[in-house]
Amino acid sequence: MDDVEKSWKEFREKVRGVIEDHGAPDDLRSFDAWHAEEMRLVMAHNYPAPHVSDVTWSTEGLHVECDDREVVDRVMTAMAEVSHDLKEARARRSVMSSVVDWNDIHGSVFKQLGEHRAGWAEQLTLALEKVKRLIDEQPELFGDERPSIVQIKQKWGGLRVYEGPGCNQATSEEIQWRVDEIEQTCEGCSNSAQRQHVQGFVTTLCSWCYNAELRRRYDCAPASWPQSLELDIAANYPDLVSADCASLVPAVGPGWLMMISLALHKLSFSQDFKALDPGTIHISDIKKGQDGKISIGFSRYHDLIQEYADWMEFRCGVTCEECGHVGDIVRTTDKSQVLCSHCYCTREKSDG
Question: Looking at the record's lineage, which domain of life comes first (predicted)?
């Protein structure tokens, strides 16, 4: 185990230990989901874990003291989301009856998730049908009562299924295991998918359903995503360009602009960058090379920026340059295009 992997393991164990002592199972699941996402973003390029000086739990929830506020803020966002969910669920458990009619599971699930999440609804229906059979066939393990499901919803890009009080532990674990499997698929059609971030909302969609959702969400709107995104490095990050640079707009597709902005934002707020003399790093251009990879030019270079440049290359390599969908890139022979299957097929159709 290298030093970076060890540092992240120690960070995870320290925070997780406090949650285990004071939190709830849903708190742990939320932190583990956040940690898995964070690892996908940073471990490929050896970003060290933040140094945690203290982790405490109060009546308001988890509190982390560490030297990287950006990481801590993302942890806090995750924990705030799950804390809100838990409060909602606990309140509903005390006053609400089950939202699932075990004699009409299909109708109950679709009523909660809606037709636009048919991919998840169909799978959850099958999962609960299986749970129903397990209870009937193995009452000694799963109990002899069907659980009360007080809430089913999509939250923070994940599927939430909350059981009522007194749910058999084996039944609860069976439901959660099946929910975890469903979360790896598209909400709309059950295709393989991962979480997508679009202007503050998080969803789990394949490239086809993602683009359909963008059309629905921004239909008749004055601006669209990501085509309306604008990034001028000279205006937004003036410390990263020379003094005589009036404008520097990356020559890339709109889908990559968010990744570039995220990397430069993280760099500009890092303590290491702030410790450098002004003008140490000057970016001269950002464009897509003929090999389909992002290319960053420098008029002044410092080793500090390399890890951020590597991160940009990695993230842009799995992000559609047209629509910004992550994780469904069509690998063409010449590798010059970095498009999701939807945008690739759309372009092929228009060219043909």
Answer: Bacteria
Give the C-alpha separation, 13 to 102, whole Å: 40
H or E element at residue 144: none
Torsion angle defined by CA atoms of residues 265, 270, 272 and 309, in that order, rounded to the nearest 10 degrees? -40
pLDDT digits 0-9 by tens, 261-282 = 888 988 888 888 989 998 999 9
Residue 33 contacts residue 68 (beta carbons within 8 Å): no
Place of tokens 């929830």: 61
Q: Which residues pair with 294 in a beta bridge?
A: 288
**Left (φ > 0), alpha (ψ -120 to 50) or beta: where does 164 sit?**
beta
How far does CA 146 lie from the centroid of its chain? Answer: 33
The string over 105-134, giving b where at least 16 C-beta atoms fall within 10 Å of a residue's C-beta and e elsewhere, is: beebbbebbeeebbbbbbbbbebbeebbeb
